[in-house]
């Protein structure tokens, strides 16, 4: 999620002081809306994935069909050569027949667009010798094979191109639906983010905490904020090393709102969730639920989550964290900014 500056937080605090307290039911409603929208996006993505798999399979089929067509065209060329050879043989036969003074229907057959029809008439008239009849039948069969093969190739090519267009249309429709849902999710996230900030500031104000100048017994710049209940959570260095290693592996990956794709794009909570997954730990997807699902600790260690309202990162030690910060930036190492450190 986007990083909220102190100027924005101060503005929200000023507004929250003058407005009604944020109700937990409002936040729960937004969480439910977000969960429903994410579920819809997941379903659309599943459909899109299926279409893309079909497109990929069609591409493989087209490649295979290209090889088949190449073989068929070679076969077609063979039949066309055979047809020409038979035509020449029949023409030679006509020459001999005329030289013998014997008229024949061969000339009509060769010049006709429908040799089979002429052949039927010739058979009926019983005017052909067995040899002539056999040669004409071979010629007619060759013509038929050539025509059938041409129709078969053209039909298959047309069907596959139509299927390709159909998949393209489905892909475009699903991509547009997914894009619209992403905008919807971004709107809900912004509303949820503002609600969480307002609630957080309201809690701090209720406990006597002054964001601008600090409060006795507390600090405005770190995990000493009095709004949190600290707990004791065991620290597992093996898990922590895996989390930090995963965070380092994504340095340079672009920031993108709502993204959680390794090597491609992340938002802040998407990056944190991914890093924990690499350690075999399942945590929620959003920054607010990542805070509420873990234990707030006073002694931050590498692998803990750096939390501020609306933003999270991975603490890597020495006052540094790895974060997916905002649009136009890549996953980077930054100075740690945290109102709470969270451990799982």
Number of helices: 8
Strand ordering within the main sheet = 3-8-4-5-6-7
Radius of gyration: 38 Å
Estimated share of beta-strand residues = 5-15%
Order of helices and strands: HHHHHHEEHHEEEEEE
Percent of residues in helices comes to 55-70%
Number of strands: 8
Q: Termini separation (Å)?
A: 20 Å
Q: How would you portray this structure in words?
A:
- By secondary structure, this protein is of the alpha+beta class.
- 62% of the residues lie in helices and 9% in strands.
- The chain has helices at residues 6-17, 24-99, 106-111, 115-125, 130-206, 237-249, 268-278, 287-293; strands at residues 260-261, 265-266, 295-297, 305-308, 311-317, 320-323, 332-335, 340-343.
- The chain has a six-stranded antiparallel beta sheet with strand order 3-8-4-5-6-7. Strands 1-2 form a two-stranded antiparallel sheet.
- Helix 1 (6-17) packs across helix 5.
- It is elongated.
- Residues 1-22 and 210-226 have low confidence and may be disordered.
Outline:
This protein has helices at 6-17, 24-99, 106-111, 115-125, 130-206, 237-249, 268-278, 287-293, and strands at 260-261, 265-266, 295-297, 305-308, 311-317, 320-323, 332-335, 340-343. The chain is of the alpha+beta class and 344 residues long. 25% of the residues are buried.
Name a few traits of the molecule.
344 residues; 8 strands; alpha+beta
Give the SSE map.
Layout: H1 6-17, H2 24-99, H3 106-111, H4 115-125, H5 130-206, H6 237-249, E1 260-261, E2 265-266, H7 268-278, H8 287-293, E3 295-297, E4 305-308, E5 311-317, E6 320-323, E7 332-335, E8 340-343
Antiparallel strand pairs: 1-2, 3-8, 4-5, 4-8, 5-6, 6-7
Helix pairs in contact: 1-5, 2-5, 4-5, 6-7
